[in-house]
Specification:
single chain; 2 domains; six-stranded mixed β-sheet; about 30% helix
């Protein structure tokens, strides 16, 4: 078996391949590591047959949708998963055949309604149902401590004690555990009484994940993250350096329109000399009256250089083929002590 564990912060994803056939499955891939997964597949000569998410993640962005499109590979989730882009939906007991490898779906809800674990001969990928020294939380959307108790004590903990445990998260640098070790040492599993276990889970009072809303929105719908939108826009537009813009000031060039897209209060407080003001929220509505020459070079600027990148991409889509964005935005302009007009 070819096995790669890829850590991204506390997130754990897995590439599992059949040595004989070079077929592989990717489990719980993270959006920022797509190039890493593709590189590993090329390194080992693997062909990905399935991309699987053990559940709808609420604390990171799944790469399944993008990998499925890039590789032409089915996206596997449990049948209760809300994601519209899941191609293959598994029931409890359904099996994935990956060359000579077999991965069996074990329905383990509780952290989420659509949580499943994937069981192989010597190991189990537990998602967030069972963690090393802990369990998944049950206070996020579709979580249920009653279901988690049954998933743990009636299913996962009945696997052979030597079964290796590979979770979807670990924030202490650990790679794996075993069912036997977790039964003996996991503090949450010492609460074997259902009522005590549920009371413990309900009293955890954990902070919400940093990207909860965005992660759920994108992972449930197949929509794009803000970072994806910015990355796609940045690939469509060139940028102008701060020093180059400063050199152009005072040259009376009519071939450059400096377009400040911040709100009026920020614009009035200080802007690049000669800039005109057109808030980003009104860009599409006023572009024809404010920017009458589609052949002119337009430089968009905002506070940090992000919204201006989106604006420049929009202008290019609207036919302003020479739109560029100011690298670094007005924050960098002020820090360089370049001239301001109020």
């Amino acid at each position: 078996m070819i096995f790669e564990q890829i850590a991204t912060g506390g997130c754990q994803s897995y590439l599992v391949g059949c040595e004989a056939t070079r077929a592989a499955v990717l489990i719980d891939p993270e959006l920022s590591r797509i190039d890493r997964y593709l590189g590993l597949c090329a390194q080992h000569g693997l062909s990905v047959k399935y991309v699987a998410d053990t559940h709808t993640h609420a604390d990171h962005f799944s790469a399944s949708h993008e990998l499925g499109k890039a590789l032409g590979t089915p996206i596997v989730m449990h049948r209760f998963a809300p994601s519209p882009y899941a191609d293959l939906r598994l029931d409890d007991g359904d099996m994935l055949v990956v060359g000579e490898l077999r991965l069996k779906s074990l329905y383990t809800p509780g952290h989420t309604r659509d949580s499943m674990s994937l069981v192989m001969e010597d190991r189990v990928f537990t998602g967030d149902a069972l963690l090393i020294g802990g369990t998944g939380r049950t206070d996020l959307p579709s979580g249920d401590p009653h279901q988690l108790y049954e998933s743990l004590f009636d299913k996962l903990l009945k696997l052979p004690p030597q079964t290796l445990v590979f979770p979807a998260h670990d924030y202490k640098g650990r790679s794996h555990s075993t069912i036997g070790i977790e039964i003996a040492e996991n503090p949450r599993l010492q609460k074997t009484d259902r009522v005590e276990f549920m009371a413990m889970m309900l009293a955890l009072d954990l902070a919400a994940p940093t990207h909860l809303t965005e992660a759920l929105r994108t992972n449930m719908s197949g929509g794009k993250t803000v970072a994806q939108l910015l990355s796609e826009a940045a690939a469509k537009v060139p940028f102008m350096a701060q020093a180059d813009l400063k050199e152009r000031l005072g040259s009376n060039s009519r071939d450059l329109v400096i377009l400040d897209i911040r709100e009026k209060e920020a614009f009035d407080a200080g802007h690049v000399p000669g800039a005109i003001h057109l808030p980003r929220g009104q860009l599409e509505l006023r572009v024809n009256s404010e920017l009458t020459d589609p052949t002119v070079r337009i430089l968009t600027c905002c506070e940090f250089g992000k919204i201006s990148t989106l604006a420049a991409a929009t202008l290019r889509e609207l036919g302003y083929g020479r739109a560029v964005a100011l690298d670094g935005g007005m924050k960098a302009w002020r820090e360089a002590r370049y001239p301001l007009e109020t």
